[in-house]
Fold this protein.
Amino acid sequence: MNQVRLLRIILLVSIIAICLFPLYTVTVLSPSFTALLIEDKKDDALRLARYFSTSLISETGELKKGELPEIFLDCVNSFNQNARYAKLKIYSPSGEIIYSTEPADIGQINSREYFHDIKTQGSIRAEVIPRNSASLENEVMTADVVETYVPIMKDDRLMGIFEIYYNISAEKRKLDTLIYRSYGVLFAIAIGLLASVIVTFFKARKSLEERDRAEEMLRLLSLTDELTGLYNRRGFSTLSEQQFRIANRDRKPLLLVSADLDGLKVINDTFGHAEGDQALIETAAILRECVRQSDIVARVGGDEFVMLLTGGDEGFDTQKLVDRLQKLIDKHNRKRNRGWKIIISIGFARRSPDSGQSLDDLIVRADRMMYEQKKMKQA
């Protein structure tokens, strides 16, 4: 049973490990890929901002609406020809849009909290905006974009802010396709591994159960008589010792019955050993029927049987036991019309809770009484 429990623990650990691997991929690896894409676009935005900065920043360092250098406008024209750049805006330090590739935006003021944080911290901010979702400026995007804000600095002073929208629809589709394919392969592998682990578990458990059954069968065979199915001498001694301990603890009496099949040699010599074996089998069945299921019945020799009766706070009525046994014998013999009959001689030995008698003592006393009964039958 400990090995089966260990197998269950291994199965549970394997299932957890197999489930955690896809979960790790979904919650860690996939976001990492997206983060790499964002970082790449941040770098693009920073390079673009640096490229534009040289043509934007004047001697005074102040960017004003309608006063952007021609060289900057030429750069923007080349910017517009690149389909990767969806939109570009330039903000003054106050948050006013002083330039946009969409002229309708010029003059608007960005007073949102995130924009204020960019101005005060001077850090780049980039967000992936999925198709049909609202940007940070609450504008619905018609493509997958990375909305990036890059501060324009001169001598540690904020001169303005770039806002660049990168169209990443193509990259996003490729990334999603790669991720979904990876998910498919990963989950297929996980399901295959899980199925293999479960099948292996059930096979291993079945093998252990079969081995346990085989060991139990061997144990029973070592304790039972092969011919009659009763306990053998070893089994009787093992179980009787246990009952002795219980009787001593609970202060209850025990009764040992010694029984012998009379005339077994005559049956073997006259009718053959097969009939002798049959007589032993039928004797065992009669003795087993005569007592309670909790009582111990054993064949301890060729024609020798013993029984240990464990019930009886009030003691044992041996005469009732003899009468019940004889009725069973007579009933059995009437059903069988053969040249031989079942005849059983028995003897008793009672053990009181305070007697301290051993099992061997009881067997000797019961055998003595049983042999006296045999002599009386022969006289």
